[in-house]
Predict the structure.
Amino acid sequence: MNSEKITLKPRNAILAFFLAFLFPGFGQVYNGQIKKGLIFLLITFTIPFILGFTRIGLFFLGFLFVIIIDFSFRIFVIFDAVKNAKKLKSYELKSYNNWYYYLIIIIGIITITWFYDYNLAVGVKSYKIPTTSNEPTLNVGDKVVGDLRAFNNIKPNYGDIVVFQKKDSLNPWVYRIVALPNDKLEIKNNFLIINGKKCKISFIKETKSDEFNVNEYEEELPNGHKHKIYTFKKPFEDNKNAVNEIIIPANCYYLIGDNRDNAMDSRYIGVIKREEIIAKVTFGYWGKTNDRININFRDK
């Protein structure tokens, strides 16, 4: 009788919940279902690669599908752990139902996740826009998706809105590519002159940005890409943003914000190296207003 009291112990549903929540499959191991736990853990790490292979996350509905699949599977794993824990009122402890085996499992999972990058597996990553530097294209509070594999087989091009991170920066930045390696670039009155040719500019309207009066234009880059820009009606300093003729170094790109008078871009931080470019912004899925949902930034 004494041995049974020692080896029989009911499972705690609350503990099973937290174990499954923190480490997918761990709740099943706690319940004595080690094979199921390992399968769930394997599925957790495999699903992102499958979704990444399909490239489904590069589109709004596909991105929502990725979120729903991931969330639904995690909920199912937690529910399964809690449901089975409640059934095990008289559970015979297995050899691995002790603290040091649990510690080994936790260390093993943490080690795997240390080298495992969910975003790289899926191929996309979400970013939040914190400033007005890229208005009117990107607004403060916009949540956008970056394609982490966009430039695996092709080179960045004029008009691409890219995410980059310099070595001395803690956070990623987002700006638009306006000049490619070996281009000759000038900037006069916030307008671009690339390889001796002034980019086409069309005035659209007068408006406001962050309480400043601005002019809105449509600008066309050498490859035909068109996008909108802002310039202050009354700049803080004349010729503040002027750039005399420069040559963009090999393997480097010149990035500036669409809000030309209000962006800490390549005019201040210098050219961006190819290896510093992380992703290409593809679409926005959320923002402060409903019209910021499902915006395709590939052609903006």
